[in-house]
Amino acid sequence: MKVAVVGATGLVGSEILTVLAERNFPVTELIPVASEKSKGKEIEFKGKKYKVVTPAEAIAMKPQVALFSAGGDTSTEFAPLYAEAGITVVDNSSAWRMDPTKKLVVPEVNGDVLTIEDKIIANPNCSTIQMVVVLKPLHQQYKIKRVVVSTYQSVTGTGVKAVTQLMDERAGKEGEKAYPYPIDLNVIPHIDVFQENGYTKEEMKMIKETNKIMGDDSIRVTATTVRIPVMGGHSESVNIEFEHDFDVAHVRRLLAEQEGVIVVDDPANLKYPMPKDAHGKDEVLVGRIRRDESQDKTLNLWVVADNLRKGAATNAVQIAELLNKRGMI
Ligand SMILES: NC(=O)c1ccc[n+]([C@@H]2O[C@H](COP(=O)([O-])OP(=O)(O)OC[C@H]3O[C@@H](n4cnc5c(N)ncnc54)[C@H](OP(=O)(O)O)[C@@H]3O)[C@@H](O)[C@H]2O)c1
């Protein structure tokens, strides 16, 4: 299969290349795509070198599927042109996620919504993906009423420029800034732009995308999203109030049985999920599983995943695998 990776020189794009190779996605020809400034650069994939082309040039090369991670503007401009040319797009940006005509997909949660008609498929926000994978089996069993989530997000979620800012600050070097404040030895309670209601766009994404993916607008969600000087993955403190009561041991079992989830929950032996452990993994790690003793039928969890993997690249490749398996590409 001819596969285009749009944004191949970026953090998510390079992770997509790794995941495609690792999972043996049947790529017969790779088309690495980036901006005009990277045109002609060589990208290695499975021992072969490919030259980077621009998004417009890639359309003429007729890939069957294009995995986009080149920002919202590139997706808004080019995804419809790819779709018109018969190329199925899996898009990592936020451009199409809340469009009612587009599916927002996490394969383990709502992969069944995909049909042959879907030509632009949205990959959810990284913080949302890792949370809904954990919420799904719990909602099925106990019906979720409300979720309160606070995030501790890795600088890799902002892209190459943010990783460089953190490294420059550590080395005492001046350089380009991705954030309005120093990130090293700091915590910034601000991810994406502020909205009129005082929330950030990242927080509103977590709220709206959760309802769309879970297919249930009755789940109330509130979020505070925070950037921390960490690489390797995003962490989340998730407080969940249910309609029905639960047994903590049963919750642990449900989570252990959920596809894509690993339970790491052994406080006696100091075992709990951390970004260092999630780094490079495709699964979502969950631990600190305990009852919220301040309120009935309420649970506390700590959820960690590699935002570049399950939060972006792995989820996008899993969508492509699903489309391939069902003969849709
Ligand atoms: N990082 C995450 O955890 C994460 C998670 C989920 C979704 N996403 C989304 O994925 C996208 C990329 O994120 P990232 O972290 O990989 O950013 P990044 O490291 O800054 O990479 C951006 C990529 O987009 C390409 N690009 C930029 N402008 C372009 C244009 N006009 N035409 C073609 N290509 C262009 C860049 O190519 P050049 O090298 O040529 O500039 C580069 O390959 C964003 O939409 C982001 O919201 C990121």
Automatic annotation (TrEMBL):
<dbReference type="Pfam" id="PF01118">
    <property type="entry name" value="Semialdhyde_dh"/>
</dbReference>
<dbReference type="InterPro" id="IPR012080">
    <property type="entry name" value="Asp_semialdehyde_DH"/>
</dbReference>
<feature type="active site" description="Proton acceptor">
    <location>
        <position position="234"/>
    </location>
</feature>
<keyword id="KW-0028">Amino-acid biosynthesis</keyword>
<dbReference type="Pfam" id="PF02774">
    <property type="entry name" value="Semialdhyde_dhC"/>
</dbReference>
<comment type="function">
    <text>Catalyzes the NADPH-dependent formation of L-aspartate-semialdehyde (L-ASA) by the reductive dephosphorylation of L-aspartyl-4-phosphate.</text>
</comment>
<protein>
    <recommendedName>
        <fullName>Aspartate-semialdehyde dehydrogenase</fullName>
        <ecNumber>1.2.1.11</ecNumber>
    </recommendedName>
</protein>
<feature type="binding site">
    <location>
        <begin position="9"/>
        <end position="12"/>
    </location>
    <ligand>
        <name>NADP(+)</name>
    </ligand>
</feature>
<comment type="similarity">
    <text>Belongs to the aspartate-semialdehyde dehydrogenase family.</text>
</comment>
<keyword id="KW-0521">NADP</keyword>
<feature type="binding site">
    <location>
        <position position="307"/>
    </location>
    <ligand>
        <name>NADP(+)</name>
    </ligand>
</feature>
<feature type="domain" description="Semialdehyde dehydrogenase NAD-binding">
    <location>
        <begin position="2"/>
        <end position="117"/>
    </location>
</feature>
<keyword id="KW-0457">Lysine biosynthesis</keyword>
<keyword id="KW-0791">Threonine biosynthesis</keyword>
<dbReference type="InterPro" id="IPR012280">
    <property type="entry name" value="Semialdhyde_DH_dimer_dom"/>
</dbReference>
<dbReference type="InterPro" id="IPR005986">
    <property type="entry name" value="Asp_semialdehyde_DH_beta"/>
</dbReference>
<keyword id="KW-0220">Diaminopimelate biosynthesis</keyword>
<feature type="active site" description="Acyl-thioester intermediate">
    <location>
        <position position="126"/>
    </location>
</feature>
<feature type="binding site">
    <location>
        <position position="227"/>
    </location>
    <ligand>
        <name>substrate</name>
    </ligand>
</feature>
<dbReference type="InterPro" id="IPR036291">
    <property type="entry name" value="NAD(P)-bd_dom_sf"/>
</dbReference>
<feature type="binding site">
    <location>
        <begin position="37"/>
        <end position="38"/>
    </location>
    <ligand>
        <name>NADP(+)</name>
    </ligand>
</feature>
<keyword id="KW-0486">Methionine biosynthesis</keyword>
<comment type="subunit">
    <text>Homodimer.</text>
</comment>
<feature type="binding site">
    <location>
        <position position="153"/>
    </location>
    <ligand>
        <name>substrate</name>
    </ligand>
</feature>
<feature type="binding site">
    <location>
        <position position="97"/>
    </location>
    <ligand>
        <name>phosphate</name>
    </ligand>
</feature>
<comment type="pathway">
    <text>Amino-acid biosynthesis; L-methionine biosynthesis via de novo pathway; L-homoserine from L-aspartate: step 2/3.</text>
</comment>
<comment type="pathway">
    <text>Amino-acid biosynthesis; L-lysine biosynthesis via DAP pathway; (S)-tetrahydrodipicolinate from L-aspartate: step 2/4.</text>
</comment>
<keyword id="KW-0560">Oxidoreductase</keyword>
<dbReference type="InterPro" id="IPR000534">
    <property type="entry name" value="Semialdehyde_DH_NAD-bd"/>
</dbReference>
